[in-house]
Specification:
This protein is an all-alpha fold. The protein contains 14 helices and no strands. The longest helix is centred in the first third of the chain and has 31 residues. It is globular, with a radius of gyration of 20 Å. It starts with 13 loop residues before the first helix and ends in a 5-residue tail after the last helix.
Length: about 300
């Protein structure tokens, strides 16, 4: 049975605690994993919506891939990033910085959410549960010492890009059974998107990370070269769509003209939004731009659009 020791929170209203837990979980990040998860379901079924028989597993899988795993990995990240976050103006109002939650409580929240993630994932299926364990292990390795991949340039990018770009769609596929037959080429594009969207987050936190001694990819390469790496990954991800459409691999060939038009739009928008100023609002806007070709692909792949 999963329990959470809340003794350090005696006297704290339940509503305040739940609100702070929600802040730890960062709901704005949930679509980052839920979209690849849904893509995996889409690829496996050629359906926009699950059948009545599939729905319970898909919903439980979404609960795991979204709120539960994000709470587990972000809470443990916040607990170990506290010294640096005190120097980051963007984190000034967070529960740990204000003292509403302590690192001990946040680590317990992370452990409880991780345990709930595994238990819920086990009801979906063994492959999905194995993927959930791997995602949680990567989240721990990213934030917690002695591994702490967050401050190992290159590894910080890889763990995020692979977790979102590869494990994300695989989890949606595995929620329905065996991973056999999964189209691995989609992991390439997903990983490139993950690199392109993760690197700007290190640029946004560059000054705080530099002051805290966090050796991220942005700190190691500098702002200009780190941005160029993210931009190259974005161009690669967008270009991959054209290649897949041209060869009829996963993306129908009749989408080639649409992809050829969208690629310049995506490439220019990335540079205009993130070339000089990197904020989480701008990063989110760029991510949502990718929903346009993704949405058209979904409608075409499922036969809604001819």
């Amino acid at each position: 049975m999963v329990t959470l020791d809340l003794r350090p929170l005696v006297g704290v209203p339940a509503r305040t605690f739940l609100r702070d837990v929600c802040v730890l979980a960062r709901p704005r990040f949930w679509p980052v994993s839920l979209l690849p998860y849904y893509t995996g379901f889409l690829l496996a079924t050629h359906r926009l919506v699950p059948t009545a028989a599939q729905l319970p597993r898909i919903l439980v899988g979404g609960l795991v891939a979204g709120p539960l795993v994000w709470l587990a990995v972000l809470a443990i990240n916040d607990a170990y990033d506290l010294p640096g976050d005190r120097r980051n103006p963007r984190k000034a109002a967070t529960p740990l910085i204000t003292g509403r939650l302590t690192p001990v409580v946040v680590r317990r929240v992370a452990a409880s959410s991780a345990a709930l993630s595994v238990l819920a994932a086990a009801t979906v299926g063994p492959y999905f549960a194995a993927g959930t364990l791997l995602a949680l292990a990567l989240g721990w390795a990213y934030s917690a010492p002695p591994v702490r991949l967050k401050v190992r340039p290159g590894a910080d990018v890889a763990v995020n890009a692979l977790a979102i770009g590869a494990l994300g769609p695989m989890s949606g596929w595995a929620a329905l059974g065996s991973p056999a037959g999964f189209p691995w080429v989609m992991c390439v594009q997903g990983t490139l998107v993950g690199v392109a969207l993760y690197i700007p987050t290190t640029l946004a936190d560059y000054r705080a990370d530099l002051a805290s001694g966090f050796d991220t990819i942005a700190v190691r390469l500098g702002l200009r070269w780190a941005y160029r790496l993210g931009y190259a990954a974005w161009i690669g991800a967008a270009g991959c769509c054209v290649v897949l459409a041209a060869t009829g691999t996963m993306i129908p060939r009749h989408m080639l003209v649409f992809e050829a038009v969208m690629v310049p739009v995506l490439v220019v928008a990335y540079h205009l939004l993130l070339g000089r100023v990197q904020t989480f609002a701008r990063i989110t806007a760029v991510a949502f731009l990718f929903l346009v070709p993704s949405g058209v692909f979904a409608l075409t792949y499922t036969g809604v659009l001819g």
